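Sequence and fold:
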Amino acid sequence: MNIWLLTGEYPPDYGGGISTYCDHTVQMLCQRGHYLTVFTPAKSHLENWQTENRSDHLRVVHFGENQNPQSNALGNFARRSYDAAMVLAEFSRKEGLPDALEAQEYLGLPYFILQRSWLLDEALAKLPVLVTAHTPLYLCNLYDLAPSFRFPDYWIGEMERFSFIAADAVVYPSVCLRNEIEKELPKVRNHSLVIANPYNHPVNGGQGNKSQDRHGFLYAAKLERRKGIELLLSAFSQMWDAGMNESLYLMGDDWYDELLQRNMSELLQKKYGRYIEANLLSWKGKQSPQIVKQKLNQVRAMILPSIFENYPYAVLEAMSAGCPVIVSQSGGHSEMVENGISGYVFSHQKTGDLVDKVQSLLKLNPTEYNRMASAAQARSGQISSYDVVAPKKEAVFAKIRDRQQPRRYFPFLRGAQRLYKHPNDPAMTGKKGFLSVVIPFFNLGDYLEDTLNSFNGFHDLPYEIIVMDDGSTDEKSISELTSLHDQYGFRLERTKNQGIAATRNAGASLARGEFLAFLDADDCMDPVFYRKAVNILNKYKNVSFVGCWAEYFGEAQDYWPTWNPEPPYALVHNPLNTSALIYRRADFLRYGLNDSTFNLVMEDYDSLLSLLDNGCRGVAIPEPHFKYRIRGHSMFHKVTANVKIMAYELLCSKHLTLYQQYAQEVFGLINTNGPAYLYDNPSIWYPPLGFLHHSGSPSDITATNDLSTISGRAHLYYAVRAAFNKPYDILRGFFPAIERLRTTIKKRIVK
């Protein structure tokens, strides 16, 4: 088979569990005659991508950041996913699709590939995707006691969740991880199964030193709370204080504790320094695989006391080396060990159980110890050897390659399945396959021709354009409107001035199409969007409206990435270009009519929430087809922060039941990230707000668990923007260059 593998980590540039998994998977499949292409982010700067042929059956494609201009609008990990989708789409166009793509769920790497596939992207729509679970960031944060709602980590979690439910198949290495994921996402169980991670066991692995020559215990993992490091140190300090002289060797990276804003190495020095001085405790940081293997041949056992774990290679490597292991019951590693036979399994819920298991191992006589070491070695081969794992993996690849079941329902994360039914009223259903584009107009004669010209050459489906003149008062604009009507032949409807909300509603009621779109008279649209959106609406029974990314032009140039409007985030901030969506017209007329109460701002956002309130769901095509003109004198840019705050209060009051349903999550998002009107992109980091003193800087890339922090320049940018926010709002209406300058500074400093 021709198999593609997408990974964020691949040797020799990376170590760790994901990299080790990919290395063994590639070796296993190549040995069985399959052809592998590994796609992985380049560690060094690349303009595009670079292909490295490592054997007749293996090539590695390293791809760089920012495969196109809009990639830079995203935060680090969302950008990596977006770039991966661009590269894989290009390869599929040139070479055709593989038999299957396998990708990690971690950090949402396959998110945009799956999003584009489900939204009928020509290059990726038929790509079979297998997601192999490692441990998603949102679960790591849960067990590390890290903030669950902080951007960008929260949004990475949403991308990971979507990757699970949108894949053709999901493979978990352990039952424990499967149960943990599907407790929240039960629909994944319909397309998931458990297959152990592969490991190449040496033919003559040996058992290292004899039992009487071994001393101490090894912990080979990050100094991470989830890995149980604090519980391990507490247990060993008790045993040391009671007279035990067995050493504990720690081999793993330091870890930044988001909860207490300190490095775990600080805890080692402050709380356990006396044991370090007595040579009972040793920490050397992350070590090479060779040094770890050498230590496995010297210690009595390897200990992994994780609070939650998936299927750690550290345990497999220890068992394969003939080193017994002591593991907690709280994870997939307990499924690898036969308690009392190939190692010991202890429970965190049973007081003193870890100490008891350590002492049990110390009491083994040489014969009993060697029997356990041999059992550990045999067990590792039984569960994860290439011969055991490969046939199961091949069967999954073949199954998704040969899938026949058509897709009829888009995989939304939350909410009940709503089946679309055509209303009986012909006036609401409209002319089948016909699109009506409604353009509200008020004194915008300088811009309307650009809007109309954006439809030049659009013949993909029958359509009409209806310009709704909302009682314009500017004579020049009225004259230009009349002239353009004579030139372009659109439908022109005039009303007395009643505001944007009522004007949109009036246009919707006059429209004749099955599908309805809005477009403001100073904006433009790449008409390919309408063809794509209609295809999506025709394909999925549970999709009522479609949006896309926005590209800013005029007084500023930038991109705004939009997202499928999933609660709870959709209740906190509008995630979609709601002034330029395409709807099933019947759904808009029944559930999405604009409310004139919001005539100053957010009338389109209110419409979105009304649709969600009634079970109507929508999607966002991740391409910038919508061209949004930035004008300092536009209505949106004139409103004050207080107007936005009042609009949010009205939204919450009007859609109270919906907000109550997600009250805990909404509170978490706002409490963690600040008021919703201050941010518009959940994939990037925003500074902490408030008056509390912070002893440390939050990490920009908390998912990496390294010591990197946000630059001082980013903090300075937000501080200056806050200080000059009010005069900036006033001056940009008179000096358009200010907006362009702000956008440029933000791009270069914050990102």
